[in-house]
């Protein structure tokens, strides 16, 4: 293991890899810093050089998953695909990547990390906000291109995140969410449903020339929440 550390030169990631293994094996309560040091093959003092506490090292593991999700979302958001396809891919990715990351845990994350719930909730809120910003980028691009009807991009981006949060492995363990293929199909259906409300459809001949409805929202962008 020490030769591997010298070769990779990234002790922090190795420590977080060890956390991932031990959370699946013992859970948070039974995992100790001594266990982690043995798993990684380093001294316990080295762990404390990178993380001040057991709570911080575990929350950093959650952060790393979220950062990897965000990286995937940014790549999709910046691709040349249509706005519709990008949003669909992003919705599916944010669920399925998390599912794949914790599929080996016997408990859901809320139960597994109940001892650090306060810190977990605060980190999670920041993760979701950053993901929503990537959706907002795509929504604004779709509006500029005339393919999406989204007068409130910021609020809509957060709604897209909220609507798929129920399928994340937080209240349910990955195994309780069902088979991977079934979960991906459920996310895709939700994505399709949400996109139907955002896509601009060609105007039907029967509506041409009619006066616009007075109760329709203005097209000007309004930033809320």
Structure description:
With 225 residues, the chain is mainly α. The protein folds into 2 domains: 1-51, Arc Repressor Mutant, subunit A (Orthogonal Bundle); 54-200, Tetracycline Repressor, domain 2 (Orthogonal Bundle), CATH 1.10.357. It is 64% helix and 0% strand. The chain is elongated, with a radius of gyration of 22 Å.
Describe what is shown at a glance.
With 225 residues, this protein is an all-alpha fold.
Topology:
Elements: H1 2-8, H2 11-25, H3 33-40, H4 44-50, H5 54-77, H6 83-102, H7 109-112, H8 117-144, H9 153-165, H10 180-196
Helix pairs in contact: 2-3, 2-5, 5-6, 5-8, 6-8, 6-10, 8-9
| Secondary-structure element pattern, one letter each | HHHHHHHHHH
Architecture of the largest domain, according to CATH?
A: Orthogonal Bundle
Q: Report the span from N to C terminus.
A: 48 Å
If you average the pLDDT, what whole number results? 88
Count of DSSP H/I helices: 10
- What is the CATH level 1 assignment of the largest domain? Mainly Alpha
Q: Could you please say which CATH topology of the largest domain applies here?
A: Tetracycline Repressor, domain 2
The CATH superfamily of the largest domain bears the name Tetracycline Repressor, domain 2
Report the radius of gyration as a whole number of Å: 22 Å
> What is the count of β-strands?
0
The fraction of residues assigned to DSSP E strands is: under 5%
Low-confidence segments, given as residue ranges, are 204-225
Residue share in helix:
55-70%
């Amino acid at each position: 293991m020490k030769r591997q550390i010298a070769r990779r030169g990234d002790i922090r990631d190795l420590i977080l890899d060890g956390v991932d293994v031990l959370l699946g094996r013992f859970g948070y309560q039974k995992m100790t810093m001594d266990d982690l040091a043995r798993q990684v093959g380093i001294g316990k003092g080295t762990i404390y050089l990178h993380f001040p506490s057991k709570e911080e090292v575990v929350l950093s593991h959650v952060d790393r998953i979220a950062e990897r999700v965000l990286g995937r979302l940014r790549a999709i958001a910046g691709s040349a695909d249509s706005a519709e396809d990008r949003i669909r891919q992003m919705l599916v990715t944010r669920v399925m990547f998390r599912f794949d990351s914790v599929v080996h845990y016997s408990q859901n994350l809320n139960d597994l990390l109940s001892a650090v719930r306060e810190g977990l909730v605060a980190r999670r809120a920041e993760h979701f906000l950053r993901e929503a910003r990537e959706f907002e980028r795509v929504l604004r691009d779709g509006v500029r291109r005339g393919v999406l009807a989204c007068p409130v991009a910021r609020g809509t981006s957060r709604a897209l995140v909220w609507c798929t949060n129920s399928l994340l492995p937080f209240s349910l363990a990955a195994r309780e969410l069902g088979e991977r293929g079934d979960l991906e199909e459920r996310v895709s259906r939700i994505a399709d449903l949400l996109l139907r409300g955002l896509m601009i459809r060609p105007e039907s001949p029967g509506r041409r020339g009619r006066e616009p409805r007075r109760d329709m929202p203005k097209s000007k962008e309004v930033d809320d929440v």
